């Protein structure tokens, strides 16, 4: 799956906002909003690929790092 991240320049520092946008249009809309409201000086839209296969799956029984087997 393709997604998009925003890198936001505020003053002298770039940071990523932590949200994934699933369409370029959504990323562009949010970038425009950040610029319009003065929350950013510049915004970069980064393309990312999100793998559909999970790297881990944690069951409820692993709460606190313990399983029934420990």
Can you offer a commentary on this structure?
The chain has one helix spanning 24-36; strands at 2-10, 13-16, 42-49. By secondary structure, the chain is α+β, with helices and mostly antiparallel strands. It has a three-stranded antiparallel sheet with strand order 2-1-3, with helices on one face. A hairpin with a 2-residue loop joins strand 1 (2-10) and strand 2 (13-16). The longest helix has 13 residues, at 24-36. The protein is elongated. The mean pLDDT is 89.
Strand order in the largest sheet: 2-1-3
Oligomerization state: single chain
Q: How widely separated are the two ends?
A: 36 Å
The helix/strand class is alpha+beta
Q: In total, how many domains does the architecture comprise?
A: 1
- pLDDT averaged residue by residue: 89
* Helical stretch tally: 1
Integer-rounded radius of gyration? 18 Å
Gross morphology: elongated
Order of helices and strands: EEHE
- Fraction in helix: 10-25%
What's the number of extended β-strand segments? 3
Identify low-pLDDT runs. none
Main sheet: strands, sense, barrel: 3 strands, antiparallel
Strand content: 25-35%
Write a compact overview of the structure shown:
The protein is α+β, with helices and mostly antiparallel strands. 19% of the residues lie in helices and 30% in strands. The chain has 1 helix and 3 strands, in the order E-E-H-E.
What are the salient characteristics of this protein?
single chain, 70 residues, alpha+beta, 3-stranded antiparallel β-sheet, elongated
What topology does this entry show?
Blueprint: E1 2-10, E2 13-16, H1 24-36, E3 42-49
Antiparallel strand pairs: 1-2, 1-3
